[in-house]
Amino acid sequence: MDVYKRLQREVIEAGLCTHCGACVGLSNGRFHMYPTPYGPLPRPLTADTTLPEMAYAACPGKGIDYPQAFRDTFGTLPQNWLLGPYRQTYLGYAADEGIRRAGASGGVITRTLLYLLENGRIDGAVVVRMGQPKPWLALPVIATTPAEILAAAQSVYQPVPVNVLLPEMAAFNGRLAYVGLPDQVAALRRLQQLGHEGARKVAYVLGPYVGTNMYLGAIASYLRANDVRSLEEVADLQYRAGEWPGYLQIALRDGRVLRAEKFYYNYLIPFYVTKSSLTTVDFSNELTDISVGDAWHPQYEVQGAGFSVVIGRSAQGDALLTEMQTAGVLHLEPLPVEKALGMHGHMIDFKKRGAFIRLDWRARRGRPVPDYGYRPQRLTRQRKLVELVIAALFGVCGTPWARRLVEFVPLPVIGPLFNRLRLTWKQFSKPVKRQGLRADDYAVMIRREP
Description:
The protein is an alpha+beta fold.
């Protein structure tokens, strides 16, 4: 069976596509990413649907062998399977207040890209630019100037197929940094091992933590709830505007501005969560040189401004962080690993145990599942019952009638209600979700080599 047919059967039709864009980037112009209600999906542009073998090998939707990827990238397996390989964990933010506040949580990724460019370590950076080609959409670009890097600050909470840029990366004259989500990074690392010219030009890999993402339908739903019937009415969209932790801000063409606090806007997650959010197991972007997440802790949240968990994973990544701290462009202080894990305990559990439970259920229904090369050895009955409640919530909320019904509930009602339910559920499920999730007792079963 040719590569496209295998991907069509095992990944696209199976609902496992992560929208990374690697197959399109490797297609020599034969495919493009076609927008659908379930994210952009690869679609043929020509009768010739030939794809190279590496398009299948690098597809994160069918699974990436993480143990092998860890060995290839870092030369070793993780000492902590909840966090992935690391040299040091930090609490940090950009020293420049403008850059710090322009970022989603602390401006660390933006400041790192600027530092690399300023010091001649890179000639460009693969980033995502919000507002292109339309105000409510985002595009991957290769930024080559400080202004272009700054324009790509902030998070984007919709699927963006970054790896469609592989041809441009191959043609680029110089060294690149690359900012991607965990699935995109996994595809890039596999392509580096396979010798892809564009992937091999990437000298530094950075990326954010990623728990869940939402389809663009979430924005359309939020607009309809505010009596805005078309995305065409959007003049500007920012997912993390204002003081950290920020708020969704949508400026309309008629001059109105809609705002929703981050934790209030998150009420749409159960209704529009991407399928790949439920089947991927990498939360903290474990194959990067440097990964960054929000430092969720009351001690920092009350201060605003922006605080991040920063992980130096590779030797060169951690050395770069130390260098930037010495140069005074980043503020970094050591953060105990246990505290870094505690800031995201529920989402780590969602990925490191919940995803494997969900994949087991898929397999029992005879559906294709990605192979990640490892799995937790213990999945308790109690944890499976917790996952059953979560699955029921997503199942009900994802129905057309539920999506429509929620649009009639005003944000001042649904936002605080969702946040209160979220906090109550976290507190109620915490004993079960944290049990057995410490780094020293998260037993891992690695697939044995034949």
